[in-house]
Design brief:
The structure holds 2 protein chains of 2 kinds. Chain A is of the alpha/beta class. Chain A contains 9 helices and 16 strands. Helices cover 30% and strands 20% of the residues of chain A. In chain A, the strands form 4 sheets. Chain A has a 7-stranded mixed beta sheet, with helices on one face. In chain A, α2 packs across α3, α4 packs across α5 and α8 packs across α9.
């Protein structure tokens, strides 16, 4: 945003910050450098031609977050800069982290899958803080957690809990689970089983997806799908078919082809997600439209989490009135931190596992359906802590 | 007589007393219905529903009460309702996506927060055009004009600032960091202070209008309600400057505050997602819009009780009452 009239010279006054107007632009009192390292997604054939498939996912969100930080920074006399590194695979991550650190970045936004994220954490120097915006793995919030790691993207457990709450509130408690062939599909299925137990769902049947992912662009491909899917999805009586297909290889093919006329939910169909282009409540329309103006495409999950991560650093720097990385990190993980994320409730980091607590969207392919936590599920502390492992459940040991 | 029966009698009596010779009319913008509900103050019944532009939110009345202005965000315009005939008689081009706006004390100008464009638009109502655009922080929202018209304050939601504007020069003169996602700005009637509500911290920051320094902070806590649901939005301060009311969003409460000591006196239970507030012209009542229960609550200020709730359109957002 361009300011017609610039503001400068922050001075601390009793009880609050006061800024005095001058003709000159704000003189930076300090620089906060934020790095982002992004790894290109593995080339897969996405089932839907409408899927967001841009090379700059994550990066565009971080860039928008930086603009937002810089706008406030211009008023507070803080300068924010984003340094970007793209890597082809995990092997190049360590060097990228070192280059970002060399550029003065003490906060690194990791748009990386888990193995590369762990490589980045191993490579990071003491005093570097890593914000995970892509890996949903529950291990990172439990046995594999680290004191310098913050998880901005919700865990699989949070996704599964958010979906389970909605399905149970709708009185659709009997789930037929279809699990893909990848390890991460098994992890998602595990999260669904755990959520069923927590909220009163029941897995009435389970099946492993057996077919090789065909090329989704093949002419008259629907003929084979129509032959394969109805018999495959025949199973015990159920309310919802829950699919675990994180690679997005086959889940999109299931709706309208199931043996029983039941809705599809999970990784496709009705999904629980931190973000979706369909979200426009709580002022989200403004964020979506600012993003579209910048990137000329829809804002995806990786864009949103990268935007959140950069905003978290900016918000903490502004509130802590500091450019010192340790002071920013302390504020960001402290009790007073509140981050606005266009989902109605303030976000903050859970002290027990470094996970950003936030509402989860229950989204259809075209419109928003609901938002979890559902009001029917209570929690003694924050209602947001009914999603994902609570303090008493975590296996993370943080100092 | 049981205490409950006594309470009912008291409430009915309060309602009857305050309804005595009321001629006021209440206008409520219904965000989801693209309508404005008109409520008769004497009967507290909806007497008309006026179709307006798309996504109506901000609603204000001219000083003489004859014109009602409604921001129709999705139509990039301000609709003008003639209060007597209850018809939309004009559309003013407001700039993109108007949400909240404020009228100058002489009713000649509108200061409009253009949420999507990060500017405050100044409209000359007679000329029917935007005469100034003042860039502010990201997602401007709350707008307030001082009683003497010499100072304008705008809040920006994502930048979390109160922006002080000199309307004579159309110049931004100061920016003060306030709590997260500031929503509403309201001058105290003497013009000495500006109250700014924060949705996501659930506080009100009181700023000194002259020095712009933070003069006080009001925090809210409702027993049995998770703190995240205590979100401060609408603010109303009585003309005598003694009492203030703050709408606390999803907590379904309105806080009553001693405006001098800035201490919370009590919490009134109202409808779901209470968003904005307006006094009756004689300040004997407070009206609240409750976005998720599709109704408004009527708080009788003499008995200090909620005496009625009545259904309006879907997602009621803003409210104004005129004689």
């Amino acid at each position: 945003m361009m300011l017609r009239r610039s503001i400068a010279a922050a001075c601390l006054c009793l009880g609050g910050v006061l800024f005095q107007a001058t003709a000159a632009p704000a003189k930076p009192t300090g620089l906060v450098a934020i790095g982002i390292v992004t790894e290109a997604a593995r080339q897969t054939e996405r089932a839907s031609p409408l899927a967001i498939d841009a090379d700059d996912q994550g990066l565009q969100g971080a860039r928008l977050g930086l603009k937002d930080d810089a706008t406030t920074g211009r008023f507070t006399g803080q300068d924010f800069v984003l340094r970007e590194e793209s890597v082809a695979d995990g092997a190049a991550v360590a060097d990228a982290v070192h280059r970002l650190e060399g550029g003065g970045a003490h906060f690194i936004v990791a748009d990386l899958p888990i193995d590369s994220l762990n490589a980045a954490l191993d490579a990071a120097s003491p005093g570097t803080y890593v914000l995970n915006t892509r890996a949903p793995d529950d291990a990172l919030r439990n046995e594999a957690c680290r004191p310098s790691l913050l998880n901005v993207i919700p865990s699989r457990a949070m996704r599964a809990d958010a979906l389970a709450q909605y399905l149970v509130v709708m009185r659709w408690p009997r789930w037929f689970l279809i699990v893909g062939q990848h390890h991460r599909d098994a992890l998602y299925a595990e999260a669904i089983r755990r959520a069923a137990q927590r909220f009163g769902g029941k897995i009435v049947g389970e099946k492993k997806w057996a077919f090789e992912p065909g090329n989704p662009h093949a002419d008259s491909g629907h003929v084979n799908l129509q032959a394969e899917i109805p018999p495959f999805t025949r199973g015990p009586d159920h309310d919802v078919l829950v699919v675990a297909d994180e690679a997005d290889e086959f889940g999109e093919f299931l709706p309208y082809r199931t043996a029983a006329p039941r809705p599809v939910a999970g990784t496709q169909g009705l999904v629980a997600t931190a973000w979706s282009p369909v979200q426009e409540q709580w002022g989200a329309r403004q964020l979506q439209s600012r993003f579209q103006r910048q990137a000329s495409r829809l804002m995806g999950l990786r864009d949103y989490t990268a935007w959140l991560a950069v905003r978290a650093v900016g918000e903490a720097a502004v509130r802590a009135r500091s450019t010192d990385p340790e002071a920013i990190f302390r504020f960001m993980t402290g009790d007073a931190f509140r981050l606005g994320g266009f989902k109605g409730l303030p976000f903050s980091f859970r002290p027990w596992d470094g996970q950003l607590r936030q509402p989860m969207l229950i989204a259809g392919p075209r419109v928003l359906v609901s938002v979890s936590p559902q009001a029917q599920f209570l929690h003694q502390g924050s209602p947001l802590d009914s999603l994902g492992p609570d303090a008493s459940e975590t296996k993370c040991k943080r100092p | 007589m049981s205490s409950r029966a006594l309470l009912v009698v008291t409430m009915v009596a309060a309602l009857a007393a305050s309804a005595g010779a009321r001629a006021e009319t209440i206008f409520v913008s219904n965000e989801q219905d693209d309508t404005v509900s008109v409520i008769d103050g004497a009967t507290l019944k909806v007497s008309a529903t006026i179709p307006v532009g798309r996504r109506p939110r901000g609603i204000e009345a001219s000083g003489d009460g004859k014109r009602i202005y409604v921001a129709a965000g999705d139509d990039d315009r301000i609709d003008v309702i003639d209060a007597a005939s209850r018809k939309v008689v004009d559309h003013l081009p407001s700039g993109p996506d108007p949400e909240r706006f404020a009228l100058s004390p002489d009713s000649r100008r509108l200061y409009i927060a253009n949420e999507n464009d990060n500017v405050v638009s100044v409209m000359d109502i007679a000329a029917r055009k935007v005469v100034e655009e003042i860039p502010v922080g990201i997602e401007p929202e709350g707008m307030a004009v001082s009683p003497d018209g010499a100072l304008v304050v705008c809040t920006s939601e994502t930048t979390s600032m109160a922006h002080f504007i000199d309307p004579a020069k159309a110049a931004l003169i100061d920016n003060v960091l306030v709590d997260t996602r500031p929503r509403v700005a309201r001058f105290s009637p003497d013009g000495k202070f500006v109250w700014v509500s924060s949705e996501l911290r659930g506080t009100v920051t009181v700023l000194d209008a002259a020095s712009h320094a933070i003069a006080g902070q009001i925090e809210f806590a409702v027993r049995g309600v998770p703190q995240e649901l205590v979100q401060a939005v609408g603010v109303a301060i009585t003309r005598d400057g003694k009492r203030a009311f703050v709408a606390l969003g999803p907590s379904a409460r309105v806080a009553e505050v001693d405006a001098v000591d800035r201490k919370v006196l009590r919490y009134h239970l109202v409808g779901q997602r209470v968003w904005n507030l307006a006094f009756s012209p004689d300040q004997s009542r407070l009206y609240t819009t409750n976005g998720n229960s599709n109704d408004i609550s009527v708080l009788d200020l003499a008995s200090d009780r909620v005496v009625k709730s009545l259904g309006v359109g879907r997602a009621p957002w803003g409210v104004v009452a005129v004689p």
